[in-house]
Amino acid sequence: xxxxxxxFAAIDVLFHPFQNYKRYKNLITQKNVPYHDADPAQTGDIxxxxxxxxxxxxxxxHGGGFVKGDKKxxxxxxxxxxxxxxxxYNINYRLSPKHVFPAAVEDCVLAANYLAExxxxxxxxxxxxxxxxxxxxxxxxxxxxxxxxxxxxxxKIGVPELKVKPTALLSYCGPYDVIxxxxxxxxxxxxxxxxxxxxxxxxxxxxxxxxxxRYAHEISPMNFVNADWCPTMLTYAxxxxxxxGQGELLHQKLSDLGVPVCEAHSTTLIDNHCYHFNFWTKxxxxxxxxxxxxxxxxxxxxxxxx
Length: 306
Description:
eight-stranded mixed sheet; single chain; 306 residues; AB_hydrolase_fold
């Protein structure tokens, strides 16, 4: 286990009880429903409330520095969405360093496409399809939107075509521009360790050889933001120890392009990376209220009228 794996494994263990104490009644859950059969990680949990009406859909992608994390640590937030009337597919995906870019992206594509197979079985409305995730999961969620808005991108990185296109993105504290994210210095060389783990490239310590990497341009979803991007809500921590400035960068670019975008953010050091999981705090409550307001707009097709 390398340094970044150890760090994110510890975070999962330490924070799991605090991030998953909320539970909701009368929800239907089906665990470990596979979206592909090549790897045990390619599964997801289905969570929803029975309804006679077609269900809007959330694909939830966990974080964990690309090297750790598990859908079991995202039960509360998935149930929150389901309690509000969403059909949730809360997925796992192949992790680094065993599986390098674009393996995790490919898995998210496969999971999104699998929703088409679930459509009739669960009466899903894929015209209201939100991709969401935190940290690395936010990156992967935004990458799905990049694939949807750039038809040739899947060929450039060698993943299947995304056939079920997101109609909205809800992204929590993600890294979107890998080059600028690498400027964040973490103790014990963790920035370098995460980059090497995810890319499979043994970069120089100062990343001076980044341009020699095969996917130096393609690894950043920020490079593929365009006017075809779907309506987006971003959350970020102004003092984020992992992803400082990333949410602000994406928000500005979407605003400049005229894409419907809103945001919620924290300002204090204590409300740090993925602060929204601290559901008992005032800042988290404000952010989650804004997130559900955004989801309500998607559900009610407000953006369809723009």
